[in-house]
Design goal:
Layout lengths: L5 E6 L2 H13 L3 E6 L14 H11 L5 E3 L4 H8 L6 E5 L7 H4 L6 E5 L11 H7 L4 E8 L9 E9 L6 H24 L31 H13 L8 E4 L2 E9 L6 E5 L2 E10 L6
Parallel strand pairs: 1-2, 1-4, 2-3, 4-5
Antiparallel strand pairs: 5-6, 6-7, 8-9, 9-11, 10-11
Helix pairs in contact: 1-2, 1-6, 5-7
């Protein structure tokens, strides 16, 4: 068995931290600090809703655990230098970790990514999988290198269903179960010095931020494309409401649709009908 490691955990939510923390402890390793980014970009004001997230993380902190809230990667590197850590474990951190941060840990950093890399590299892998009509997704744990989500793979497994009628809590629950299954073995491989398997760049796709027009429905597009657009927002797109559509001259938010005959309003798309099952009145933002 590989030696126990001192580990710093970097994540986006209280549940994310506890998922990583519990997996590390079960595998015989010692978390020494949590790191949370209070803004999507460094050196920016604290993000909307971050205060509530920080409060929830604080309330769930294990006894003796430090919580770091850096404003920049430079400050993060300075803060981590005193922890004498063996490994950094990242899950859902919006900033690119530069070499000065990676060097604070003896082995560097590994990242938990919610896709089957190299497919859907980037910040929104599950959202793009839903948007593209994928029927399943998975989890990859890989070494952090000089770019986003390109490092060598320590563990990877699929099988997480993307159901037609997505339920956010159930989907994240399935993803969390898979992370819990994979992280312990991945930590063991990292501790033993495993380099991991290289990614095949030819198969890579990128899951970046959605374009502004994605908030609006264009009835000239296909029914399945529009349906998946609705499913993407229904799944959860960082608290944004959408997509917005004009229906019978009124602006609404589409909450649920179907591509098979259903109890709802039938609308014609480029390639056939879609059925609007649930809406909410809306005032769309300026385009």
């Amino acid at each position: 068995m590989a030696d126990s490691m001192r580990v710093v955990l970097i994540s986006f939510s209280a549940s994310g931290f506890m998922l990583l923390h519990d997996a590390c402890v079960r595998a015989g390793h010692t978390p020494v600090a949590f790191v949370h980014a209070r803004s999507l970009r460094q050196r920016k004001p604290t993000g909307k809703g971050s205060a509530e997230t920080i409060a929830a993380i604080s309330e769930s902190l294990p006894p003796g655990m430090d919580l770091l809230l850096p404003g920049s990667v430079g400050g993060l590197a300075q803060a981590l230098s005193g922890y004498r850590t063996d490994l950094i474990v990242v899950y859902g951190f919006p900033w690119k970790l530069p070499p000065e941060v990676l060097r604070t840990a003896r082995l560097g950093a590994i990242n938990v990514h919610t896709s089957l890399l190299p497919k859907y590299r980037g910040p929104l892998p599950v959202h793009w999988a839903v948007r593209n009509g994928e029927t399943e997704t998975g989890v990859t744990i890989h070494w952090v290198d000089d770019d986003f989500d390109t490092g060598r793979i320590l563990a990877r497994k699929g099988g997480v269903r993307l159901e037609e009628d997505l339920v956010t809590a159930r989907l994240w629950g399935d993803i969390d179960l898979l992370i819990g299954e994979l992280l312990g073995p991945a930590l063991g491989r990292a501790a033993a010095g495993a380099r991991g398997e290289p990614q095949e760049g030819v198969d890579a796709t990128y899951a970046g931020w959605m374009e502004p027009d994605f908030m609006f429905v264009d009835w000239k597009r296909g029914a399945r494309e529009i349906h998946n657009q609705v499913r993407t927002f229904r799944f959860q797109l960082f608290g944004l409401r959408g997509p917005f559509a004009q229906v019978n001259g009124e602006w609404v938010t589409l909450l649920r649709t179907a591509v098979e005959p259903a109890d709802g309003l039938e609308m014609e798309c480029a390639d056939g009908p879609i059925w609007i099952i649930e809406t909410a009145p809306a005032v769309p933002p300026d385009r």
